[in-house]
Automatic annotation (TrEMBL):
PANTHER family: SSRA-BINDING PROTEIN (PTHR30308:SF2), TMRNA-BINDING COMPONENT OF TRANS-TRANSLATION TAGGING COMPLEX (PTHR30308). GO terms for cellular component: cytosol. Belongs to the SmpB family. Gene3D superfamilies: 2.40.280.10. GO terms for molecular function: RNA binding. Residues 137-158 have a biased composition (Basic and acidic residues). This is SsrA-binding protein. The gene is smpB.
């Protein structure tokens, strides 16, 4: 529901660049994420990935599955599990909106990025998305190539 955050005010921890190619991105939401201390320290290192992850509603809560946050090496035996489900913190109205879109409209909840906001809190930008077919992906790639070629032509002429 909120717009994408200002790039000058946050530090990116993980980015899902593949999501914009595989899915048609609809409405986006900013959610908090419930993490342990070692997960926060590891996220600040910037080696986590969310390219294979997804979010789903279960029991009135939204959970992030398959997000990889590597172990924090200095944590010793008190480390976290790297791919454990993590709870996303959203308002009840937003959770209801997401659940309805997934059940009725056949959409998917896809994480786009994990970042630290201006206060230093870890946030996840999630989006309601619809999967693209192969011909849609080809059209996207064709349009991207044409825009790149067009900008080259305009740059060379002017």
């Amino acid at each position: 529901m909120t717009a994408a955050p200002d790039s000058a005010r946050y530090k990116l921890a993980a980015d899902n660049r593949r999501a914009r190619f595989d899915f048609e991105i609809g409405q986006t939401f900013e959610a908090g994420i419930q993490l342990t201390g070692t997960e926060i320290k590891s996220l600040r290192g910037g080696r986590s990935t969310i390219s294979d992850s997804y979010a789903a509603e279960r029991g009135g809560e939204v959970w992030l599955y398959n997000a990889y946050i590597p172990e924090y090496l200095e944590a010793n035996r008190f480390n976290h599990e790297t791919r454990r489900p993590r709870k996303l913190l959203l308002h009840k109205k937003e959770i209801g909106r997401l659940a309805v879109a997934v059940q009725r409209e056949g959409m998917t909840i896809v994480p786009l990025k994990i970042y630290f906001n201006a206060k230093g809190r870890a946030k996840v930008e999630i989006a309601l998305a619809r999967g693209k077919k192969l011909h849609d992906k080809r059209a996207t790639e064709k349009e991207r190539d044409w825009n790149r070629e067009k900008s080259r032509l305009l740059r060379d002429r002017g």
